[in-house]
């Protein structure tokens, strides 16, 4: 059965005051095209590769990869709060298969996911619980980070398992591209911020509201050309997208983490979710991207992109069926 892919940037600012209507309408139209692609594919299962922003994973235990056999949204920035529809037995089978393939992956029976996982589900499917979903956490924020090439290896192992299920499976990559939002860092965080990234804990409604206001203020300052955040890098973004469009996943093999941070920002490491998703699709042969969208969006503190893709064999089969 075929695999399909949809990779999207995410931003809490998509649903917060600040960005102008023209930007939101343009990005909304691109996301609508991706959602139509998903509706036509009609997945029976969704597998997400997504990061976390110290809402579910903390330095008390920070795996490079983790498969959720049960998961709940934390409800940050107005996204879905509560359980997702995770097929537990299938998720455990996936974890065993990935481990057998030589990729060290953790498994969680109580995974908590934030807007990085839930926002794409809501935008592409209409609701976070619209389809069964297996969430895969890909650490993209908390240093030390593994090499980018391991994300492709993870994706290939996942793709090999999914291809044998006899189901229509949509793989989703969520994150990136170049961006450097105000996420606390282990080297510089102090006080309550450091305590949170070390030990976690449930945030109160007041704490979430305060963080939301901080993000809005940081985005407003960044969009005006001020502040301390690193600039977006459209050239780097387009280089990433061109390699993915062309199926040149090996281009990422020698990209070092310090270089990515220097040229594209601390959170540009979220592109490893895209590399993993494309790795899953590429494991089954050549593919072609269909929906292609990109725009540097300072008001969202992100290079914002959308890609959908199908394997070349599936595209050819679809073309033959059309009158």
What are the segments in which pLDDT stays under 50 over at least 5 consecutive residues? none
Q: Count the helices. How many?
A: 10
Work out the oligomeric state of the chains in this entry: single chain
**Shape, per Cα inertia axes:** globular
Residue-averaged pLDDT, rounded?
Answer: 93
Q: Given the helix and strand composition, which structural class is it?
A: alpha/beta
Please outline the major beta sheet. 8 strands, mixed
Folded structure, characterized:
With 323 residues, the chain is of the alpha/beta class. The protein is built from 10 helices and 11 strands. It has helices spanning 21-41, 88-100, 115-125, 149-163, 191-199, 205-223, 234-245, 257-264, 271-282, 312-321, and strands at residues 3-8, 45-50, 65-68, 71-74, 81-83, 106-108, 111-113, 133-138, 169-174, 287-297, 302-311. It has an 8-stranded mixed beta sheet. It has a 3-stranded mixed beta sheet with strand order 5-4-7. Strand 4 and strand 5 form a beta hairpin. Helix 4 packs across helix 9 (271-282). The protein is globular. The two termini are 22 Å apart. The mean pLDDT is 93.
């Amino acid at each position: 059965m075929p695999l399909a892919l949809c990779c999207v940037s995410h931003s809490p600012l998509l649903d917060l005051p600040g960005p102008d209507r023209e930007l939101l309408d343009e990005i909304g139209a691109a996301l609508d095209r991706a959602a139509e692609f998903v509706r036509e594919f009609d997945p029976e299962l969704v597998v997400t590769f997504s990061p976390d922003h110290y809402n579910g994973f903390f330095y008390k235990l920070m795996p490079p990869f983790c498969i959720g056999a049960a998961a709940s949204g934390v409800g940050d920035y107005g996204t879905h709060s509560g359980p997702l529809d995770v097929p537990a037995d299938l998720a455990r089978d996936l974890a065993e298969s990935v481990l057998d393939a030589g990729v060290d992956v953790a498994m969680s029976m109580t995974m908590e996911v934030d807007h990085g996982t839930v926002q794409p589900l809501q935008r592409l499917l209409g609701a976070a619980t619209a389809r069964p979903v297996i969430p895969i956490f890909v650490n993209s924020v908390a240093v030390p980070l593994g090499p980018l090439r391991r994300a492709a290896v993870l994706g290939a192992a996942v793709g090999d398992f999914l291809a044998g299920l006899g189901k229509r499976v949509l793989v989703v990559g969520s994150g990136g591209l170049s961006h450097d939002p105000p996420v606390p860092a282990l080297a510089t965080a102090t006080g309550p911020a450091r305590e949170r990234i070390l030990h976690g804990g449930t945030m109160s409604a007041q704490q979430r509201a305060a963080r939301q206001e901080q993000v809005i203020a940081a985005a407003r300052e960044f969009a005006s050309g001020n502040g301390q955040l690193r600039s977006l890098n459209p050239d780097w973004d387009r280089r990433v997208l061109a390699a993915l469009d062309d199926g040149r996943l090996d281009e990422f093999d020698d990209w070092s983490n310090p270089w990515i941070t220097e040229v594209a920002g601390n959170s540009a490491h979220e592109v490893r979710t895209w590399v993993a998703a494309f790795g899953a699709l590429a494991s089954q042969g050549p593919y072609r991207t269909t929906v292609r969208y990109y725009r540097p969006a300072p008001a969202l503190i992100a290079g914002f992109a959308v890609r959908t893709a199908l394997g070349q064999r599936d595209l050819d089969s679809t073309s033959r069926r059309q009158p």
